[in-house]
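User: Last request for today: this protein with magnesium ion, please.
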Amino acid sequence: MRFSRAFIPTLKEKPAEAEIPSHTLMIRSGMLRKLGSGIYSYLPLAKKVINHIETIVREELDAIGCQEILMPVLHPRELWEMSGRWAVYGPELMRLTDRHDREFALGPTHEEVITLIAKYDIKSYKKLPINLYQIQTKFRDEIRPRFGVMRSREFIMKDAYSFHKDKKSLQKTYEDMYNAYSRIFARCGLKSVAVEADVGAIGGSSSHEFMVLAETGESEVLHCECGYAATSENAKITALDCNEHDEMIKLEKVYTPERKSVEEVSAFLGVLPKKLIKTIVYKADDNFVAILIRGDREINPVKVANFLQCVNLEFATEDEIAEFTHSTAGFVGPVGKKSIKLYADLNLKFMRNMVTGADEKDHHYKNVHLERDAHIDAWQDFIQAEKGDKCPKCGKAMSSFRGIEVGQVFQLGDKYSTAMEATYDAEDGSAIPYQMGCYGIGITRTMAASIEQFHDKDGIIWPISISPYDVELINLSPSDEDITEFCDNVYELLQDEFIDVLYDDRDEKAGFKFKDADLIGIPIHIIVGKKSFEQEMVEIKIRKTGEKITCAFDDILNRITMLIDKMYDEINKNVT
Ligand code: ATP
Ligand code: MG
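Assistant: Here's the final one, the structure of the complex with magnesium ion:
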């Protein structure tokens, strides 16, 4: 493609709303344009990257016998009522009404549609297992669309669904998909790891998320030398240090004027934050509940929502706290009889002589022992795992890194098949609900994640396997006929060898072209300037390292082919 004819509207300035490098660079390199909050157009460079990622996904899935289909975006309400998710999916589901007042959802995921297909058309055990996938635009009304296509409201996803006779067959396909995912991300040139994950709104029993390592990632992953890795949302907590052998002291109410937060109360009373109990009041759908955790730890809302089996979990407001707990925000506590349910983190069970709110303005209790002084409705793991916590597998201290979730695989079991009465006919004639798996990859998020992983101050650095072009050919003297004729020939020569070239033939200054080339991030640049041309040489620049190689005219094709092969070798050595 000649740059002069290409639609690549690069920008000099950083867009004001962009918070992370991938968002900034995708806008600046002319890949992306915003239409509304979380809604983007993919311009030619982005579309080429998307196509490359999709090709890798298709090749790997086709290789394990997964077949491509395409399902509707528009889902009738009745379908989502069959699974029960019309009511529980919550505000993230985009809903609309047609001219006959019939309600629909724009598909955020397709378990319902595919289960219905299976219900009618995959009846015999002889047809199982079967694994189907599609690549399609998904809609989710994210509460906080941000970071460009990283978390948008309309995005491209590859989603696959498998149907099985039994758990053993599901496990086998799950492993095949897990391995295919590892290969897909490695072939995209990305460093990724698979971690144990929460099943979230999709449900089921077992799940792994594929994380691309990046500082700006929204997920925190805890991992251990022994190989254990889980998102901090999902990592199980092993017992924290506990003072269960301390002498139990009598409950005492103390005056704590204007001291509400953990920091204020612990400083005022001269006790460590870990000796405090935070009482957090939530509105869980329409119920108010209080969750108790240790003062030095953060609550994990995913664990709370899973435990309560609720769709919407919000902090109660000060007015709601006053109305439903008859207490005062900042001084809520667990001691005595309560009007709402109290659920406490397991770690608090044996802790003695703790500090809690006293349900009275400016007062706290000292020496609280929950088992003695409160009525706890249930004990549960509610806290967020942190770096330094003990590994649930081997007990060593875990470390942490940040990551971007690019894909997730789930063993759904019979959750959807049972809800939708989707069964197959077994060998003995009985009707049995399918075992199901589902598997997603965010195609557009993967594109952004790659930039997050590979960029520098000047721009993007594409891995060759997903780069919009293999080579950028830069003519520094487009007004010089000889040089231009030479560049035109190199352009043709490379294209004849199926090397995809962006040819910067624009009548612009050298510095301007170099800036654009670095910004766009094609892995290999061929630079043709007057000086080198006179010596029958060109300069080849490797975008990633900045390394420059001088190359004789007649060696160009050979050199470029070798460089491309080498880049693919680098990538392929991580594909297992
Ligand atoms: P998240 O936890 O980031 O909201 P999710 O777990 O809800 O994502 P899945 O249902 O597992 O997402 O969807 C499969 C894949 O689709 C994700 O791994 C991610 O790559 C991609 N994805 C999900 N939501 C978005 C979004 N809002 N924008 C872009 N990609 C998304
Ligand atoms: Mg997910």
